[in-house]
């Protein structure tokens, strides 16, 4: 198996595990860096009655538990300590944070800051959130990473869990087309079948402050029974990573 350095941009501290937990768990021959963008947070729907420091401490403990269940010495978390949407935008209504809208001046200033923080940590194959579902933090994390891509860079995009499970196929296709137009690339979907359903369930349950048992079941019973990425059709990512780790082209 080809040894790879893989950088996963995770908008929040649970996104990499929920979206790519099985993939990460089985990458024993890869060195994985997870860049957590928004680690200053008060948002914890299932861990009530604590302040910002308490929420951040809880989420760091969840990351530590995730690391303990993944290949030892192969995974490294990098926290950019950016404030998440509820703090940055002074908006506690999740529907408002999920509403698709053009970027405003505050978003563009923040995008520049996020890009600078992310730049030094981009190595090897880069996996970005596709930004499905409209969450402003996911959209900005995707755009910041995309702005750092150089010609012939190895890149792919993962479908954001749980948001893609709540999004229509047509909306997902619209997002893919939007990214294709921004990056001037053609993208193909691939699925990495779950090796062990229990791995995915365990890794999802670790983030108990963010997800319910019902949502965990929704994840492990998702269509295609696997984790989905889209990658340039003829790319280094496909050559160096997709073929090596056994992802399957969903178009075939």
Q: Any descriptors?
A:
42% helix, 10 helices, alpha/beta, eight-stranded mixed beta sheet, 252 residues, Rossmann fold
Range of strand content: 15-25%
Which structural class fits the helix and strand makeup? alpha/beta
Q: How would you write the strand order of the largest sheet?
A: 3-2-1-4-5-7-6-8
- The arrangement of helices and strands along the chain is EHEHEHHHEHEHEHHEHE
| Shape descriptor | globular
| Number of helical segments with 4 or more residues | 10
Mean pLDDT: 83
CATH superfamily: LmbE-like
The CATH architecture name reads 3-Layer(aba) Sandwich
Please give the CATH class.
Alpha Beta
Beta strands, count: 8
- What do we call the CATH topology? Rossmann fold
Indicate the percent of residues in helices: 40-55%
End-to-end gap = 23 Å
Radius of gyration: 17 Å
| Unreliable parts | none
Total domain units: 1
Task: List strands and helices in order, with pairings.
Elements: E1 5-10, H1 15-25, E2 31-36, H2 52-68, E3 75-79, H3 85-88, H4 94-98, H5 105-119, E4 125-129, H6 136-147, E5 155-158, H7 169-183, E6 187-193, H8 197-205, H9 213-220, E7 226-232, H10 236-245, E8 248-249
Parallel strand pairs: 1-2, 1-4, 2-3, 4-5
Antiparallel strand pairs: 5-7, 6-7, 6-8
Helix pairs in contact: 1-8, 5-6, 8-9
């Amino acid at each position: 198996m080809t040894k790879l350095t893989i950088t996963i941009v995770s908008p929040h501290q649970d996104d990499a595990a929920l979206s790519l937990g099985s993939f990460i768990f089985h990458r024993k021959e890869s060195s994985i860096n997870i860049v957590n963008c928004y680690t200053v947070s008060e948002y914890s729907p299932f861990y009530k009655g604590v302040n910002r420091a308490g929420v951040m401490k809880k989420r760091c403990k969840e990351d530590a538990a995730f690391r303990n269940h993944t290949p030892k010495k192969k995974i490294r978390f990098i926290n950019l300590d950016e404030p998440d949407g509820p703090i940055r935008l002074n908006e506690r209504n999740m529907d408002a944070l999920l509403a698709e809208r053009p970027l405003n001046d505050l978003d563009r200033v923040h995008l520049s800051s996020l890009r600078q923080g992310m730049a030094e940590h981009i190595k090897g194959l880069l996996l970005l959130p596709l930004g499905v579902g409209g969450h402003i933090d996911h959209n900005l994390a995707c755009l910041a990473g995309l702005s750092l891509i150089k010609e012939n860079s190895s890149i792919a995009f993962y479908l954001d869990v749980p948001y893609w499970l709540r999004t229509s196929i047509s909306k997902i296709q619209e997002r893919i087309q939007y990214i294709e137009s921004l990056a001037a690339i053609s993208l193909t979907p691939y699925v990495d079948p779950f090796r062990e359903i229990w791995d995915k369930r365990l890794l999802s349950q670790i983030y108990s402050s963010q997800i319910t048992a019902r949502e965990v079941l929704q994840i492990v019973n998702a269509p295609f029974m696997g984790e989905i990425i889209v990658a340039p059709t003829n790319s280094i990512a496909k050559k160096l990573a997709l073929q090596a780790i056994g992802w399957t082209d969903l178009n075939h």
